[in-house]
Amino acid sequence: MAQFPGGVFDDGLPDGRAAASLVPGPEAVEARLDSGAVFVIGYDSLRMEFGGATGRMLFLRGAEPRLTLFSEAPGLLEAIAAAGGPASAGAVAGARAGQAQTRKTHLRNWGIALAVLVALWFTVPPIFRVMVDGAVQQLPLSVDVKLGELASSEMAGLGPAITDEAVAGFATEIVERLRPGLPPEIQALDLKVTVIESTQVNAFALPGGRMAVLSGLLKKADGVDMVAGVMAHELMHVRHRHGMRHIVRAAGVITALTVLAGDATGLLGIAAEGAALAALTSYSREMEAEADLDGVRLAAAAGFDPAGMPAFFRKLSEIAPDSQAPEALSWMSSHPRHDERIAALEAAIPGLVRAESTPMKHTLEAARAALKGD
Amino acid sequence: MKTELLCQPASTVARLTLAVGESVTCEVGAMIAMSDGLTVNTTSRSRGGGGFMQGVRRVFSGESFFLNHFHADRDGAHLIIGPSMLGDIVHHRMSGGTVVVQGSSWLASGPGIEIDTTFQGLGKALLSGESVFWVKCTGQGDLLLNSFGAIYAMDVDGEYVVDTGHIVAFEDTLSFAMTKASESLIGSLLGGEGFVCRFKGRGRLWCQSHNPPAFGAELGPKLLPR
Ligand SMILES: [Zn+2]
Predict the structure, then answer these.
(1) What is the dihedral of CA A168, A173, A175, A181, to 10 degrees?
(2) What is the pTM of this model?
(3) CA–CA min distance B48, chain A (Å)
(4) Which of A62, A143, A213, A282 is deepest in the core (most CB within 10 A)?
(5) Which CATH superfamily, name and number, covers B2-222?
């Protein structure tokens, strides 16, 4: 006869409970203790239900109210059904009905939880965004500058700065032409641009207004309008304080998850760290769209051809597939989803008024000639 | 193995005296002092198989990846163990069955007890602030649990409610669910109880007098920055 490891609760036992082997027979289930004692529950009075910490433990009760047998061993219910036949059929059906009911409640609870989660998903982010923007507005621009200084050491690690007037003057002249289109408090910042010698096609702006253009970008660009487009985009990250918003947002996410997860142990702790990391790696889609559209407007207002920015995106996506060194196109990796962005930009360009342009004192051609290699 | 609890109750340590050939498994870092005649080895597995994955799951429950096994080479070798937090220790002799232990409350157990982890549900973890994984001790022998603050055992028969964060361990014949403390959600939040754990069934339950996350939240702001 099959035996199932389990236990017995009975007030007559020294501890009130003892380990036992459950043996389903033709008329009753027996619980055999190591001490030799045997407890019996007949099928005529048997009631069974699932419970315990896992919900998979079977509890057996009979006419004697203080006696309970239990086991979590799989197959016990089936063995009782097989051993007892019609005698145990009622009790077996009762246990199965209870199990089905529990499953239903479980499913309903998960359904409710899921509905709440979906509702939060749609309501929390907009509220959160408003709160982040409010918090960033409370912080003075000097905080952005401090933050930019902290990050500037990383900028120095990219490569040597190019001081040649033909190169540095070219980048500075573009910034000076873009500057009048910015609000006064941003114009007051130290909008300094450095050209760094590197094969990478990249440009970025730190919070507070310091900018870097990697010389690979000057080599790949087809005209001054392309360079101006990228720099106008980067200036708009500074103007909208995307770096600050990004950090405040990430801090908010970590705080919220910590509150939810208590001391942030276990899976939630890991999820919180992951979310924080993801939040810090790149700007959000909305931030990039904002920098694109306001950037192209800024470029046009400064007399540059606004088509330069989408043209540059297109050029990057064309050279990307057969590029031998994908890291050379790092601006692309931090600014993905080209097709959507090009489409959005080209839709906006016809509505823009391009200011009258005067010829640049420094030209892209001269800057390129001054660059080593190529 | 002879177990004596010393210095009870605020900063309890346990003195375990082993006969030759006996062994005990402890939480890494629990050993405070030991006599000669003990060999220590550190593994990721408790008893039998498991090994690496058992260790990984233990990390999720708030315990260490590794376990220390102390083995006596002579009669009367002893070691003193204690938890990292201030609090009490309880000694329970298991005679079969399973005790489910909250994250960091498992301190030591005899060789007849297998230590694994059990999933307690994401929903419960979210509402209670407890870990998703709990330590599951199954078998026969000595089990030592530690608490934050004092510890008390309760034989539940029917229903019993414990505030979140105060559970140390419970026998797996008990089921537990998270419920609101009062009828309305707002009422339970205002009452400061929020969600509570409702135990059902028959079995032993161990509770601790202090709740570590709440204690940390209370104390943290009062600490001077250095
Ligand atoms: Zn950007």
Answers:
(1) 180
(2) 0.58
(3) 19
(4) A213
(5) Mitochondrial biogenesis AIM24 (3.60.160.10)
